[in-house]
Amino acid sequence: MRKGYITVFLSLSLALLLSLVFTVIEGARISAIRMKFECVADIGMNSVLAEYHRELLKQYDLLFVDTSYGGGTASIGNTEAHLRNYMQENMQGPWGSGFRPAKDFLDLRADSVEITEYSIASDDDGAVLKRQVADYMADYPAGYLWEKITGNIAQIDSSQLESRDIAGERESYQARIDEIELPKEEVEEGVFEEIPLDNPADIANGTRSIGVLNLVAEDIGSISTVKVPLSQYISRRSRLTGSGVCEEAAELTGAPDEILFLAYLFEKCGYYGQEKEGSLLQYQIEYMIAGKDTDWQNLEQVAKRLLRWREVSNVLYILSDAGKIAEAEAMALALTAVLLCPELAEPVKYTILYAWAYVESLQDVKILLRGGRVPVVKTASDWKTGINSIKNVKGSLSDTEGEGRGLNYKEYLEAMLFLTDNHDRTFRAMDIMEMDIRQTPGNGAFRLDGCFDTYKARLAITSGFGYYYEMERLYGFY
Length: 478
Prior knowledge:
Number of strands: 8
Order of helices and strands: HHEHEHHHEEHHHHHHHHEHEHHEE
Helix content: 40-55%
Structural class: alpha+beta
Strand content: 5-15%
Shape: rod-shaped
Radius of gyration: 36 Å
Largest sheet: 4 strands, antiparallel
């Protein structure tokens, strides 16, 4: 009888012990599922970021994941598929998805993977991309560049280089001349014609339609004529959008700094005289300023603007130089004395002065394109041309060498780019990035609005033992 009691007691004790053991095992399974879910989520989301675009990093030091993965269609769905695959592979253990000698202790499967938020490079008018630029340029001495550019802009503003209508002033003097009736001479019996004024300013002004580059370029044949289909690039096409700048990333890096972005563009992009090797458009900074579809047009537009700035500055100076005014007056008096029209002397004098300032401005642009320097505001020692240059404009432009005084071509470009509309500058810069990346193998359809740097995912897993868990994680380059 005692043996029977012991057997029943042992059976009851073993049942209790086994319940405890199985409860501990199940608790261990639950803890292991949760821990593995955490690990698999971290590995998967980091693996997605590890697929950053190599060429974008190489050329522009930017970390973005291309959701097209080298294919033709950019979609966040592609990234969701990649993330699901990474999670599933890491949940399957050392046997992968093939034959297993025994049932997995956890038996996990990825149930759902949904990316709920993601920051596309072009979101918020390019603020996502510029946040990374600011991070990359964090050690750049932005204060020095800010002082330099704002100082140059202050000179430009005070001299009214952007606002003064020199063309209107010149045309008003020409209109005064046109209103005065010139004397006539009989060329045939009963046929009279006006005696021409032969104003040398007309010769100079006649070259304005030729084009600035045709007058000042050292070698016209060496100027790039590359043309691009702008409708294919981000500034002109309809764009994909994400959820904008990630709040966590914005808190760490702050607002984008436009001066740092400007410095970054000059570090990464080319311009006339400093072209970037392997780029599609050769004059990239000029494109960001002018936005035309050919290198020639972009450089021509920048040269025209330079000419306009220099013309305003040179008119300001020449109208303050008594010696040059006297030379122009003497030439005007000589012309009008022959015609016996003293009332023409004053407007002719000013047309000569304006034409002289124009020729001097062409000389300035030529110096800048050759790598020299030209001050925003000139003194007598900075003046290069003589009054007779207006009679032979192109032939009078000398090939002046040397650094000189004032700003160089790059510094004038910095001022122009700073004055360019923020939206235009940003998206034209992204056009340039797309152009250059598409030049590389396997990236023919690359688009920046298909690239993200931060994303939030909602993940869920199920276990063959009846468990279900979900979590939300935020990962990114910040």
